[in-house]
Queue: 2 jobs
Job 1
Amino acid sequence: QVQLVESGGGLVQTGGSLRLSCVASKETGSTYAMGWFRQAPGKEREFVAYIGWVEDSERYADSVKGRFAISRDNAKRTFYLQMNSLKPEDTAVYYCATYYSGAYDQLRSYNDWGQGTQVTVSS
């Protein structure tokens, strides 16, 4: 299993930016495709972004396309979610996860999950 720890969440005003980080355990020796999901109170967890093993593999939910960017640093065992032009509807707990197989935007395609980090966007 892979241990994942998210950080970088917080309170930001509408239009502001945050960068979330997801750090994998040092024991992780291989490269994973990764995803970001988010869950707002009373709502189902939803797909946000995905990054695969090759260049230009990034995929985004329509709701964040053009505003968010996913990236990774394999040497640091870390991947990131840069969030710009934040809106109140982006408020949620954000989770990173390791992709295994299947559709990249589906929860069932992922194996390991972090504990989440809260992002709150004030209006």
Note: The longest strand covers residues 92-99.
Job 2
Amino acid sequence: QVPLVESGGGLVQAGGSLRLSCAASGRIRGRYAMAWFRQAPGKSRESVAAIAWSGGNTYYKDSVNGRFTISRDNARNTVYLQMNSLKPEDTAVYYCAARIDSGLGYLSEHEYDSWGQGTQVTVSS
């Protein structure tokens, strides 16, 4: 497991943008896939985006595809989620997660064993 800390959440109007960051507290040894999940009030946690260790492969939930972009900087042990054209339905606590990259299941919550504490994203109408 790798300790993770999210940042960058906040309040934004619909149509606005936010950039979330997730930093590992220590150096990551091995090839980790990383992902973003979110949980809205009264709903279960769902996948948002994921990225393979190399950064070459990315995966998105259909509802955010084209609006959100996941990227990573392995030298800084950090993954980012650029969120554009935000909608009220994007309001949720966003969590970053990490796991050893197996090449499969990038958007499968149960595959991840390292989790951050979450950062609140609120999108107003």
Note: The CA atoms of residues 88 and 123 lie 5 Å apart.
